[in-house]
Amino acid sequence: MATIASSSSTVLFSASSSNLLPFSHPSTSRLSFSSSLSSSSSSLSISHTFLSHTSSTSTHSVNHSAFTISASSVEKKKVLIVNTNSGGHAIIGFYFAKELLGAGHSVTVLTVGEEGSDKMKKTPFNRFSEIVSAGGRTVWGNPSEIGSVVGGEVFDVVLENNGKDLETVRPVIEWAKSSGVKQFLFISSAGIYKPTDEPPHVEGDVVKADAGHVVVEKYLEETFGSWAAFRPQYIIGSGNNKDCEEWFFDRIVRDRPVPIPGSGLQLSNITHARDLSSMLTLAVENPEAAKGSIFNIVSDRAVTLDGIAKLCAQAAGRPANIVHYDPKAVGVDAKKAFPFRTYHFYAEPRAAKSKLGWESTTNLPEDLKERFQEYVKIGRDKKSIKFEVDDKILEALKVPVPV
């Protein structure tokens, strides 16, 4: 029996001695060598360990052999990240750029808009100096004029982390094809899945055919050779500029009730941005494994809506006073009253695990502690915040609100 697992450029093989010829080696031995290939600048090391075990009730000996092969490619890629200038996805490009640079790749980040705009004063854009100091390049402009914005530079890989429809993304795809880009990665959305009676969503589940992201995915499949699409859900991490966990902190630190629609048992998925960047980096470094694939770019654990509130309270060191309500009964729009979907909405990263050897590192309780520290650092816990929608809900429920 053999098992294979890969992470980045590492491959592990293990095999029982029943499939091998007998050896007369000592109980433990190791063989290793490395080679350098001028064409690919890669190194290969192999280790072979023999273990011997003798049963206490029998003189029969069983030898087990384990092989470990670690291949590390040093081929570096030139990567262009087309990054959105707002919303929760903006943090993806920021983390991805830093991870690529840390691995020795060359990175240019093209952000939509102008460098001097007010949007660039917010996170993660006001931290782009971290990308530059790590050796990356940052530019601003209109993706429809991408060729002139990047100055005719040639790239190996493009990540499109801006467009939500074909009209926006097509110019980037066409430029990438004409300029010789070898791999095109697209940030789609897990929001394109149709609700299912069999959660979680997995790659291949039915999607909304008319959704903009779906149209882009289909166009990529039809026109680009090496491509992959990534479907994220809710994202957490330092530098995030979209209110999700902050919504809970706002209420918890002010000792206000936390109104959650429905039972609170609905399942969702929150993923740290470092997980997104690590999966994307694996795709860059293993293009054949990623080619033509859809990936749910999410953590491998779900969390209930009540659970999010409780973990946020735990991070803040305070109790959570959760109240449940029916949006229709109290006359509010749940989309405006609550930052998450009000039904089961979570996916699993099955394709990334099987094709890329990816593993999640999201630890929601600890990650929320990080976010709460930043929440306090910027003084949001002291800011004056209005809760008109909350008050309407709580009034209908006859739940008192602290003054």
TrEMBL record:
<dbReference type="GO" id="GO:0005829">
    <property type="term" value="C:cytosol"/>
</dbReference>
<feature type="domain" description="NAD-dependent epimerase/dehydratase">
    <location>
        <begin position="166"/>
        <end position="297"/>
    </location>
</feature>
<dbReference type="InterPro" id="IPR001509">
    <property type="entry name" value="Epimerase_deHydtase"/>
</dbReference>
<dbReference type="Pfam" id="PF01370">
    <property type="entry name" value="Epimerase"/>
</dbReference>
<dbReference type="GO" id="GO:0005996">
    <property type="term" value="P:monosaccharide metabolic process"/>
</dbReference>
<dbReference type="InterPro" id="IPR036291">
    <property type="entry name" value="NAD(P)-bd_dom_sf"/>
</dbReference>
<dbReference type="GO" id="GO:0003978">
    <property type="term" value="F:UDP-glucose 4-epimerase activity"/>
</dbReference>
<protein>
    <recommendedName>
        <fullName>NAD-dependent epimerase/dehydratase domain-containing protein</fullName>
    </recommendedName>
</protein>
